[in-house]
Amino acid sequence: MKKILLFILSLFLLLPPVNAQGEGKKEKKEKSKADSIKTGWNFGGVPVVAYDRDIGFQYGALVNLYNYGNGSRYPMYDHSIYLEYSRTTKGSTITQFRYDSDQLIKGIRTAAEASYYTEQGLDFYGFNGYQSKYNHAFEMDDDTANYISRMFYRQDRRMVRLRAEFSGALPVENLKWFAGVEFYHNKIDTVDLGKLNKGQDENLLPPVQGGLYQKYLDWGIIPANEAAGGMHTLLKAGVIFDTRDNEPNPMRGIWTDAVLIFAPGFLGDKHMTYAKLTITHRQYFTIIPKNLNFAYRLSYQGKLFGDMPSYMMPFVFNSPPNFTRDGLGGKHTIRGVLRDRVVGEGYVYANTELRWKFVHFKLFRQNFHLALSAFLDGGMVVQEYKMNPSDLPADYLINGKQYSKSDFFTDGKDRPHFGTGGGFHIAWNENFIIAVDLGFALRPEDDGEKPGTYIGLNWLF
After folding, report:
1. How far apart are CA 432 and CA 66, in angstroms?
2. Model pTM?
3. What is residue 459's DSSP assignment?
4. What is the three-state SS of 419-454?
5. Omega of the bond prior to 328 within 30 degrees of 0, cis?
6. How far apart are CA 339 and CA 362, in angstroms?
7. In angstroms, rounded to a whole number, what is the distance separating the alpha carbons of residues 285 and 233?
8. Which of 455, 385, 395 is nearest to 129 (CA)?
């Protein structure tokens, strides 16, 4: 709770000062009405003081600039520029630039991104959901009977992502075309335990190198030519149907997209060609105007053909203004479930959320509202990654202890992974939205024995 209060306090410290000059009631009313419509450049800038169960305590700074033009379209903006540099206590770094506008090129929505991510302890739980067992005791150093390493379910990833996307109107009302290109350079490795253990008590150091990711390499589940990552260029095209009344904070409407993603081998260094299809439907229902609504999201994302490398599977694709995320599991897909817990060549997921805006107010000539939410999320693998555990040895020796195949794999298909919980939101001028969510997995195989706490920006969808 202290972290949440510090984050909120830092936001208010950056707001412009109050105008202390006296005003009459009529002048106040007219001024209040005028202040409700924002024009020109406005910003939401705060120190990054956040927490995500999957990546740790986050610190840094971000700025989101919005240009509302003459204000005639408020709360829709003409230009949005997002800048962030932050680090986390679990070894992650985010350096990110994002741009979004439907005015840069008249009649065309333009979105761009240039990001660099480093993660010293990226989650890795295997493939195909529940076919890969998760045993929390393996990473708990106080469980001497079962402990393997606190980094057993982790890997190291350094990723560059460049993205440019465009959309424009089609002759059918509310229907748009979509096209884009997305470039990835992933460098994958086992966790650098020497760096993470620097200054730590020697009795607590992980005694094993590589963890589950190294075991998957040793067992041949992940091919040797994928072990270090690679470069891939994704070409994207599709259609979007959008009737939302407000993009960042919709009360009613539909937002549906179908996108074909093609990764030609000649535009990557591994010469792997594959294609994916993503279909995502979102709908918003007003229950009480301006105050209470219900929203849900349904998505299928699966491989159509080709050879998709294992390190490209844990990505969830969206149409602008949203962008590609890690998943399934975690802050952006199934809250409460461990990030990347549900990974396969194809998957489905769903989110339902009740949103209540219980207070609207003005402060320092800025528009604010506070909101509460309750949610239920779920997802599962529907296209399996071929890992053939039946071909593996029945027993394994790790750190001098004997383990069987059943300690790491199960038979049968994946089944739904569920998370539920609630959230608190602060909206600033309708677009800059601080979100605090608390999620609980419904099964112990998904939650690491503690709830997921997430502090970030914007509604989930």
Report:
1. 9
2. 0.84
3. -
4. EEEEEEEEEECCCEEEEEEEEEECCHHHCCCCCEEE
5. yes
6. 37
7. 37
8. 385
